Structure formats: structure tokens, C-alpha cells
Amino acid sequence: MFASFATRTGGQEAANPTSGAPAPSGLAEWWPVLEGLGLSHNDLATVERQARLAGVCFQRELVASGVIGEADLFYVLARHLGLDFVDEVRPESLLVREPQCLNILRRPSGTARVPALDLSTGQPVFLIAPQAVSIPAMRRLLARHPRIARMMRVVPPSVLRGALMARAEGHLSQGAVNGLFEKWSHLSARLVMTGWQGAVLGALVAVLGMSLLLWTGPALLGLHIVLSLSFLSCVTLRLLAAARARSAQPGRELKAVRTEDMPVYTVIVALYKEAEIVPDLLMALGRIVWPRSKLEIKLVCERDDHETLRAIAAHGLRPCIEVIEVPGAGPRTKPKALSYALPMTSGEFLVLFDAEDRPHPFQLIEAWQRFREGGEDLACLQAPLVISNRHESWLSRMFAFEYAALFHGILPWLAGRGLVLPLGGTSNHFRRSVLERVGGWDPYNVTEDADLGLRLRRFGYRVDTIASPTYEDAPTTLPVWLPQRTRWFKGWFQTWLVHMRDAPRLARELGLRSFLATQVLFPGMLLCALGNLLFLLAILAFCAFFLIRGSLPHAYGAMLLVDLFNIVCGYGAFLALGWWTLPPPARRSLWKHAALTPAYWMLLSLAAWRALWQLYTCPHHWEKTPHRPHRPTPARPQRRKPGPEPTTAPSSSPIASMSRPG
């Protein structure tokens, strides 16, 4: 019955000839409802044209445009239809179970009706928030069924969604914390090690310790061989990626698009203690080129992060933005918060950004076009991260150098050869259905991005890269940089332990080449960082031995040469890859990077050893990286080739009615 006056779809909204449902009302039928609000008919006609271009109904475009507030619109609609209006809904009044709440919340166009109890009278009512209403059909329905009309209450969709989220909180928390473990326990980092992994690791540590005490020379030689092989594998990977970067072709140009073909796109941003950068975030999201009537933005915050929530509430947000408050149950990690929000998204595609990110305005369009061209097995696209504050400190300079090597060198090389690709922590674009199919994010893994890239490959999906970047600022001080890098190293080793619980099965699911790449990317990179410190200490020890004794035993001399070879090749490959992936203007300062590389690698070693200790003492602890508002670096104006003209209408508009420059 209620479907007779509303059509709810994720894309084009029109009459359904097979079901006989009427088309949603346009401006002609909405004008009698709106004319008393002082709105310009010309402005409303513009909204109607934009709705036709976007392939959505007039009502949906009207709310997205910000011409009228959501509460005002539904208030005048209720008055026009002769129905009661409700602007507050208590979660306990809803007569729906928690799983039903989730089914309603994931609908892209809101809800048609939700049964509830009028707590003042004890009578059942229907709460309606129609997002694509046919006003004539609605009036006919109310005239034919006056008893139902007396039970109806019109409520703004955001108010009803808030009540539904509160009602489903327990179910959402359970799924976010235990969903992956209950579905595929062997893929969850909830248990850091299995029994046999712990036994093997303990045996290796015991054997190594005894060998160093009883057979020092052979033990050191064996340790050098293992670490040297790790160094050699990482050097080879970097050199291969550098060769690819040297001959890389420029990115493809965007094609013209029809706005009506564009699907609903979800943007998720996880925030924790980010009150200071909320204005910058809203401005960055406001530059995204995508029709606002087909964009949903989820700002995911911890419930007890009152400062960030107040900072968000200080801005008049458009209806495309929804704030999701995550309760404190389970591990307090970013992936837990993302898993909590995922069931409440409805976009065909989904992108994850960090709070400090400034994505390229056309990034969503490029990702969508690549998804359309790539086939259904293309599950995820990684956008490159570019550091914009490289000149603030020597740490940010080296961080930018390392990021250029990773996102413009190693990841494109892996993707180009169809190998497993560990995702970066942000700017990941997903097919939402595939993301849900593989279990979403692991709330217990502190590098959920790398884990998810590996899991997607195990399920038979591809991950690729795109060219449109996301700009962000690097840590500029050691107290900020060290915890972040420690968490990354800890998570990579955690991810490797999880997926190596059944190594033969992992090899079958990944394929031999990706399996070998996994050994280089995860334990190989960690052993490189650990081994760098050991090699430097060994070189110092051998040199001291030579100065004291005047000579070196042949075994120690050979190990000294191996250590020097490893250090020179490791630093050289690192610099070569960074050179070819840096933008040409930045290559002039390569000598600075070369001079800073030994100190930076020492810090990497410190972070790696710290990560091992934390993996033992607090494996699921998330060390938060603090952020600050972006401070643009003054630069001389440069002539730049103009980019493509926007191809959507409205393609980009503010998402907050209040903002301030960063």
C-alpha cells in the first residue's frame, strides 16, 4: 500500500511501469506545498533541472541543494497533507527489531514507514519519512483510508535515522566487534598467534639465544644470511619498482560522464580527537565533484569524543552528511569504528578518507570510471597519497620521499603485475558489496588496510591504483612520527601472522607469485628495518675489534663486507626508487635525502623493535596520530595546464553552511 505513493531506488527514480507505482512529484505538484515559504520559483525550477540531470526526483534534489531545510520541508508537507508532524523520536518507541533497523538504514532514499508506539497515549502509529513521494497518490491514499491517516506521523528522515541507529546500537556493536571473527576466525587478528605459531616462535628464540652463547660465530653467520636475504629481496623489489617508475606513462584523462548514470557514492571519514581540523575537512569534502543528491558522507566519531562532536555540530551540515557515534564497546580502533558504520551505508561504491585528507576533486569520478572499465572482479582502487608539507622538517621531507616511493612506485608496480597489493590507510575506493562479502575491516588489526588488501586477493578480487591524489601532511616531530610508524610495523607483522596460519592454503589462494610478494612485503620489510640496526652495530663492533686487535678473523671480515654491501645496496635502492617517483622539481634536493637516509633508517629500526615489543605487550592498542590544520606553504605562482571542466551539475557545492579557512 505504501509503495503506491513512493518509489525508492538508488539511481534513477521514476514511475515503475511493471508495478504501476506513480512517479515522484515534480515542481508542479510541490509548488502548492512550498509557495508559502518565500522560495523563488526560479530557484526551484533550477533544482528541477538539476534533478533531471542527476536522474533523481525533485524532492531528493531539493533537500540536497540546501534551498530548504529538511525539517522545514517535512513540516510543510505534513501540514499540506493534514498529518501530524513529529520532530523527535525516542528509540524505545520503535516497534522494530534491531536487524530490521539495519535493513531500513541501508536504504539509499530513506524510509517509507516505521511502526512505533505513541508513548503519551500508548497507541500504535506509523512514522513516515518519504523521500520520493507522489503527493496526489498520497492524498488519494489518505482519503481512502482515514483510519490509517490518523495513525500517520511525518518525521524528518535524519530524526528517524537517529532513532533507528540508537535502537540498533547493540546489533551494530556486536557485528563491528565480532563479525569477522564469527564468520572467518582464521582471518581475524583477535588471536595474535595460534598455538603452533607461538611454539615455533618460542623455539626459534630459544635456539637463537643458545646458539649465540655456545656457537657465536656460526650463529652470527646464519643470522647474517637470513637478514641479508631479506635485504636482498627488498632491494630487488625497490629496483624493479624504480625501473617501472622510470618508464611510467602519464595518467589517463577523464572521460565525459552523464550525471544521470552516476550511482550513489559513500564517503566515510573516521575522526577521533580531530576537533581542530573539522573546518579543513569540511572544506576538502566540499570540493569533491559529485552530485550532492547522490553523495552520502558518514563522519564516524567515538561517542565520548565530545570535543570533535561539538566542532562538527557547530557547522550547518547538508543532509548528505550523517554523523555516526560509535559506542566504546570492544577495541577502540579505527577499523572497529568503520565496521560499525558500514551497515548504515547505501552507496554502490565507497571511499575511505582520513580526517586530515584533501582529496583531488575528481578522484571519485576517476575511480568510478575505472570500476566501470575494470570488470566485477576489480574490488578496490588505491589513490596515491602525496605529502604537502615536505619542507617543514627533515622528518616530513623523508616521509614524503618514502610515500612517493610507495604510492608512485611499489604499489603501481604490484598492481601492474597482478600481485597482492597492501592498501594504504586512506583513499581506498571499494565496491561496497564486495567489501561486505569479504568481511569488511578487522577491528583487531591495527593496519586494517594492509590486511584488507591481502584478504581481497585471497577471495579472488583485484586491487588497482588510480592517479588522482589525496594530499595530506606528514608528521614533523619524532613524538608524532614514532608511534605512527610503530603501529604500522606492528600491524604488518600482525597481518602476516594471521594469514600465515595456514601457509599452503594461503599459497593456493594467492598464487605463487603473490605468495612470494607477501613474504617480501610483510616479514621482509620488517626484517629489513630490524636488520639495519643489527648491521650497523655489527659494523661498529667489527671495526672496534680491528682497531683493538689489528686484524679480523676471515669469518668476521666476510660478515663485515656483507654488512657494508647490505647497507649500501639498501640505501641505494631506497634512494633510486624515491628519485624516480619524486616530481622533477623535487629531484634537485636528492643530496639532502641521501644525507638524511642513515638517520631515517635508524628511526625505522627503532620503530620496528618497538613494534615487536608492543606486539607482545599490547597487540591491539591503537596509537593515535594527532593532526593539526593544514598550513599552506607560500609558493610562486606557476602556469599550469587547465584541468577538465566539471561534467556534473551540480558537481560540487559546499557541504557545510558555515566554514572558515584553514
Automatic annotation (TrEMBL):
InterPro entries on file: Glycosyltr_2/OpgH_subfam (IPR050321), Nucleotide-diphossugar_trans (IPR029044)
Region (Disordered) location: 1-23, 624-662
Biased composition (Polar residues): 1-19
Gene3D superfamilies the UniProt entry points to: Spore Coat Polysaccharide Biosynthesis Protein SpsA, Chain A
GO molecular function, one term: glycosyltransferase activity
Membrane topology: Multi-pass membrane protein
Alphabetical list of Pfam families matching this protein: Glyco_tranf_2_3
EC top class named in words: transferase
Keywords: Glycosyltransferase, Membrane, Transferase, Transmembrane, Transmembrane helix
Biased composition (Basic residues): 627-641
Protein name per the record: Glycosyltransferase
Low complexity bias (residue ranges): 646-662
Record EC number: 2.4.-.-
Membrane-spanning residues: 191-215, 221-241, 520-548, 560-580
Record organism: Chelativorans intermedius
Localization per Swiss-Prot or TrEMBL: Membrane
Source taxonomy: Bacteria, Pseudomonadati, Pseudomonadota, Alphaproteobacteria, Hyphomicrobiales
